[in-house]
Every structure is written in C-alpha cells, then in structure tokens.
Design a protein that fits this description.
alpha+beta; 10 helices; 18 strands; about 25% strand; globular; binds zinc ion
Length: about 400
Amino acid sequence: MKQELIERFICYAKVNTQSDPNSHTCPSTSGQWELARMLVEELKSIGMEDVTIDDNGYVMATLPANTDKNVPVIGFLAHMDTAPEFTGANVNPQIIEQYDGGDIVLNKEQGIILSPNDFPELAHYQGHTLITTDGTTLLGADDKAGIAEIMTAMNYLIQHPEIKHGKVRVAFTPDEEIGRGPHKFDVAKFGAQFAYTVDGGPLGELEYESFNAAEAKITIKGKNVHPGTAKGKMINSIKIAMEFEQQLPADEAPEHTEGYEGFYHLLSFQGSVEETKLHYIIRDFDREQFEARKAKMKEIAASLAQKYGNDRITLEINDQYYNMREKIEPVRHIVDIAHEAMTNLGIEPKVKPIRGGTDGSQLSYMGLPTPNLFAGGENFHGRYEYISADNMVKAAEVIVEIIKLFEQKAS
Ligand SMILES: [Zn+2]
C-alpha cells in the first residue's frame, strides 16, 4: 500500500492546483480542472462506478455495496486545491527513506533545511519514509494526501471483495483553501448520510468542532479640514477607528488565545483623516458567546455613532460558517466509529477543536454531517511541509476500517 500511496501522491502533487481568491470561477484555477480530470480517469480505471464531474469541477464516484445489510451510505471527501499563500507550481517532492531523525537538506543551493531544532515533531518520524518539498514550493499534502488515501482505500476494497461494506461515496472538491469548497457541492446528488473529510494534520487527529465564524467591516467617515484652522471642525476618522479597537478586550485576540477561547482579530486597518476602514474576523466555539461578540461590536459602533454622529459609522457583519458540533452531536456515533477505527489500528485518537473551519463546517449545515480525519501532513501551506508515507498508510487503513465498522454494526 505504501508504494501505491507514494506514487499517487507524487503524481497529484506535481499538478499546480493553487486556488485563487480573486478568481470568480469555480474551480478558481485551471490546474484544478487538470487534476479533476486525472482523478476521473483514475477512479474509472480502478473500477469505481457512477464517476461524474460537474460544471464546477466537483468529482464524485461510488463504491457499490457488496452486502445485503442495511448499511448507511457514507462519504469521504478531500480537496484538490492548495493554499494561495505559497507557490504550488513545479512541486518537486523528495523522498527520504528511513529518516534518521536529523536535519533534512531541502535545498542545498539555497541552504534550506528542515531541522528538528525548528520542528521538534520530526522526532516522531524516525525510521519513517518522509516526503518533503525541495524547499522552493509547498508540498500539497494538504490535501492531496487525503485524495491519495481515499483513492488507495477504494482500490484496496475493490481488490478485496471479501471485505463486506455498504455503499460508499467519494468526492474530490475544489477551492477549500479559499473557503468555497462546499459552495457548489450538490449534497443531494452525493446522497450520503454522513461523510468524513480526510483533511486533518498528524496521525490520530479527529475533529468535529470548529469555530463559529463571522467577519465585520467597519467604515468610519471623518471630516478633513486644514490642520491650521481645524479647531472644533476636524473629525479624524483614524482616531475614531482607534477608539473602536481599544474598546475591544485586548486579550481576546489570536495572539493571546488557544484551545476553546474565542477572539476578535483585526485583519486590516486602512485609514486617512477622511475615511478609515477596519476589517475584523470574529471566532468562537460557543454559539452564544459568538452572538455576544457580534453584539459587542454593534454596541461599540452605536456608542461611537452617538458620540460622533450617526452617519459617520457603518458596521457590516456577515456570518461565514458555524461550529459543526451542533450538527454532528445528534449523529455522534459517526465520531465514535472513527474513534473505534483508530483504536482498532493501534492509533491514539487526538480529538481536538479546530481553531478554524473545514469544508465540514459548511457541509454539516447543508445537511451532510462531516467530521474531519487526519491525512498525516505537517507544516501545511509552506516550504517546510512534509508527510510520512507510513502515516498515509495508516490514514488509508482508517478509511477502510470505518467502512468495515459501519457494515459490522448494521443489521
Ligand atoms: Zn486542507
């Protein structure tokens, strides 16, 4: 299985599928079409059925049931794009067999080294086969490892018809990294009762809680007057904006929070005397706290409007996604089964809240409860990204085990 995974992964990694938030098409970039078409051919060649690709680049396929038991239809998803913030062109993966635990020279010419001094987690990988970048690009283990693991698990089940299972659906989706992964996902066509994204980090990760998320845009209008004659007339929008920021609790910011703590994050601040714009994101696991944070922003805006004039301050808040826990809790057994699958394989499940969102955060609210499983990679979105091929094997085995468990528990 390991060689098969390495080959698949490297083949996918070489296609540049970096997504682009400024594009309005779906997929946002043509490289994703290229990978999507490759995956369609591969799904057909391994013997998957109902292989489809729609106008938006979503690839779906079916592994038909081989049992008469009444097993729920489950799905597995991975995304095809890589992060916009680091180049995904000309990815040239390096394979390190039997990693010795020391420094890995990614690029001799440029002196780029992946070192356990900077990344102590490398210690866990002694003896593993590692796949790294050549130091000039990201690797794309997020989430091409997930695609390779799903594909390999499907191939394994097709090659082993003695393993009984219900109907399994798989999907490969575009534009996760720019938050649009589920936007055009056809939940009805997919037709699964639950799904798992295979898009997590290191071995054992199992996630079913994400942030509730909103963004806030504040525009403050000032009044510019020559500073020599400004007394009693000038209104400096920058200073009102500073007042706004200062009324938020200083310690509830990303740089001061962890675990289940929420925050306000000032993403950008652009201003002149005449006009200042603030862009925030608001994050909280707890729905009530999340609503309270939005209310707090409205309160501050209202008090500043009272002080400086109603037409000076506009506040626009948009919800982005919600904590998937609310939708997964009622079908909690899907998390328990993933937990059991890992334990059966000797993997210690690491259940933790995601301080962000996954495609599952949106899909769960579209009627497809979707927790997240580890794909195995480390240091996502940059030149130091790497993945253990041995842990990719474990991820593929977890997928197979989950499918087995659903069948075993059905009647
Ligand atoms: Zn991802």
